[in-house]
Amino acid sequence: MYTAQDYKKGQPRWCPGCGDHFFLASLHKALAEIGVAPKDIAVISGIGCSSRLPHYMATYGMNTIHGRAAAIATGAKVTNPKLDVWQVSGDGDGLAIGGNHFIHANRRNIDLNMILLNNRIYGLTKGQYSPTSPRGFVSKSSPYGTVEDPFRPAELCFGARGHFFARAVATDAPGTIEVLKAAHDHKGASVTEILQNCVIFNNGTHDSVYDKEGRKKNAIYVRHGEKLVFGENNEFGLVQQGFGLKVVEIGKDGYTLDDILVHDAHCEDNTLQLKLALMGDGDGFPIALGVIRDVAAPTYDEAVEAQINEVKAAKKYHNFAELLETNDIWEVK
Amino acid sequence: MAEQLDIQELEQVVVRFSGDSGDGMQLAGNIFSTVSATVGNSISTFPDYPADIRAPQGSLTGVSGFQVHIGAGKVYTPGDLCDVLVAMNAAAFKTQLRYAKPNATIIIDTDSFGKKDLEKAEFKTDDYIAEMGVDPDRVIACPLTTMVKDALADTGMDMKAILKCRNMFALGLVCWLFSRDLDVAFNFLREKFAKKPAIAEANIKVIQAGYDYGHNTHSSAMNVYRIESKVKEPGRYMDITGNKATAYGFIAAAEKAGLQLYLGSYPITPATDVLHELSKHKSLGVKTVQCEDEISGAASAVGASFAGALAVTSTSGPGICLKSEAMNLAVIMELPIVVLDVQRGGPATGLPTKSEQTDLLQVLFGRNGESPMPVMAALSPTDCFAAAYEASKMALEHMTPVVLLTDAFIANGSGAFKLPDLNKMPAINPPYVPEELRGTWTPYMRAENGTRYWAVPGREGFEHILGGLEKDNKTGAISTNPENHDLMTRLRAEKVAKIAVPDLEVEGDADDADLLIVGFGSTYGHLHAAMDELRASGHKVALAQFRYLNPLPANTAEVLKRYPKVVVAEQNMGQLAAYLRMKVDNFVPAQFNQVKGQPFVVSELTAYFTQLLQK
């Protein structure tokens, strides 16, 4: 058995109070609970503040180049499907420069645990807006506010036919550990969005849910098979109305607990899961935390192995010498 | 006429099959080269196809050619101009005549020279033979389509299927011209269409009809040729294209090293056939990922290498620009990957189906920072096998990315390939971390030759983190220490500089040449042929062809300075010359530079070199 200590290495260099510290501690704990040996884990990141993370892991890993972590992780996983591959990116690394690799890793459904540490800012380059910064966001590169809409990671994941999406707040250790374990257990590409604060360049970006009190009011923990209720005393719930969702108070306006939706993370159709994932951001809905979508599907790496075994059984050549013999050969005597 | 039949002994002959892209000229050419190789002739082939998949039928832009050079002795190139031109339609006749010798025999299908065909090919008169200034006595004008229809009339085949056999009639005629035994062609077709015996038999019937047509009419006193084989190196052979040979080289290297073969690639002409070839061989455990882009192809190869595979990424043209970022990552992480660059015409999209040697300086220097990287260039279609094997061995044993340059010319061209024996090929021994370093090992510890050790994930006790940031030489932790960066930069450079490569070989008049011809990679055949011709006419000439570009052979400077005159001939504007001038003091060669997208023409080379000799 392993403890969090077995996965720890070095002294993180992130700013004091950075959300990355919280996430790293939860990752160490989650890995200990999962129990995969450090020798069988590869943590692969791109570039950015959060991409420093592999340096603080006592596993195998790489802190690579900007945006390419998913592509590099793909090569590693396809080569050795037994490796437990964690791909760590920030919002700039994963969704801007690495956007293409992000969507294709999801589409291919390679068994990667993709972590998206979302602080809605470029930290390492000292404060430019990111693809998840809201419209109008003022930053060094947008002094008069941005004039573009952000990506919503879940929407991108679902649009790329992703089969797993979860969300946690960096400061919420139990919530983070729970989704990391679920991400690991999911076979295929999983996207876990971590809401994370940047104390220097975007302080307070996730304030509404960053502490426990805030989460009681402004978040809903979703779990497969459980009622979608929230509030300090679970007095609110979600019901379906028309093409959308609606927040109701249980016991008011004729709504009882029976009317409240039960979460189905395993539902192939992602319509309601997407609605859950997009809630929040001042629209009167709570932010959904937990495993929002978790649907089984064939994985790329396993399919490659299966195809190799099938073809091995079907073909008569299994080494280079035998391959040569499959050609039209003539002999000069 | 029949009585005048004259059998001419030839040293070598060049045949060019041309027609619409869909006319099956490549298949006809391939069968002809196989038939010739079987009797021991040397062969070299070159497909010349347009960038459009199917340009409008009969149009000038839709013509594709396939040239076969066969010789009694060794042939080095697919030949400059052809002795026999097969033109399946008016457009082919018009566009391909420039590749024919003045006295070449020309076979045309008169059924494809109707009014509309002539219009499409932009002929001004009905007398197309006169219009092109061709001696009608050199033309075998036969109603080829009609005869194919007649030959297959009672087979019940539909017209579309019948017309697909036209190429085989032309092949039959050519086989007759060169007194070829048809059995080999028949066997080839029976194997190719093993699952469609009716198609095989139809094709065979048409070849026979073409052969008989030649035999029975002797086609108005045409010469019939015979090419005896002189140099026969005993052994078992197959016809192989450069791209296939490259793929085979990677397969062989992976097996020898005991590693999985991984290819990350994005389709791009003319490199795609390597992806196609490797994708077939799942029974050998080969894994190919068709990636979302060139970047991902290279990046995923770096990931595969980290995980312990022989990792390859293949590309061409603009693809090599996109891969440079991940190649540099492999430089600083000191992980082995092989980057195959099948060069084509540039810049940008350039000439996708044509050949150049214009990426040399880019692969040597085109990356940010100090980025030393070994570079090799294959000499011929069959050399692609050995070059891919060596590039893999070099990458794995020295923990470095290696670039292998080929190009459209040798990638698509083919030659007779003597089957290699993997048992006799050199061993490949990657520098895995020795067990005795357990407990003290750090990621940038080096073996005696300066190579970083390889610790593959899954091995307990050797967990480590690599990365694109500079690392401390001792601890492997991120470091911005000025002395350390300077040291690491030098260590990476020394590691590559120390790689042992064979001396530069000088062929021809090595002792007393008046002119040394210098080239690299795929121009070997043409430069060799030019040297042979000059020597045959009494000149003292030598050839030094570079196969290793970085590191350069140790004797490079000595060879380049040994001769009174040196010419560097390359298919670019002088990249090798510039590089050699940088590496060798006071070296000022003459230059022959051409970027036409087509192979060199030996006669143009000899004309230029003769001028140099006379100066």
Description:
The complex is a heterodimer of chains A (333) and B (615). Chain A has helices spanning 19-34, 69-79, 91-97, 99-108, 153-159, 173-185, 207-210, 212-218, 271-277, 300-314, 320-324, and strands at residues 41-45, 60-63, 84-90, 113-118, 121-122, 128-129, 164-169, 190-195, 219-222, 229-230, 236-241, 244-249, 287-294, 329-332. Chain A is of the alpha/beta class and 333 residues long. Chain A has a domain at 4-210: 3-Layer(aba) Sandwich (Rossmann fold), CATH 3.40.50.970. Chain B is of the alpha/beta class and 615 residues long. Chain B folds into 4 domains: 2-226, 3-Layer(aba) Sandwich (Pyruvate-ferredoxin Oxidoreductase, domain 3); 239-423, Thiamin diphosphate (ThDP)-binding fold, Pyr/PP domains (Rossmann fold), CATH 3.40.50; 431-499, no CATH class; 506-614, Rossmann fold, CATH 3.40.50.920. Chain B is 37% helix and 20% strand. Chain B has an 8-stranded mixed β-sheet with strand order 7-6-5-2-4-3-16-9, sandwiched between helices. In chain B, strand 12, helix 13 (318-333) and strand 13 (337-343) form a beta-alpha-beta unit. In chain B, helix 1 packs across helix 8 (182-192) and helix 18 (524-536) crosses helix 21 (602-614). Chain B is globular, with a radius of gyration of 26 Å. The two termini of chain B are 51 Å apart. The chains are: A alpha/beta (333), B alpha/beta (615). At the A-B interface, strand 1, strand 2, helix 2, helix 4 and helix 10 of A face helix 1, helix 8, strand 9, helix 10 and helix 12 of B. Strand 2 (60-63) of chain A pairs parallel with strand 17 of chain B, so a sheet runs across the interface.
Strand content of chain A: 15-25%
Helix-strand makeup class of chain A: alpha/beta
Instruction: Give average pLDDT of chain A, whole number.
Output: 97
Helix content range of chain A: 25-40%
Write a short abstract of this structure.
Chain A is of the alpha/beta class.
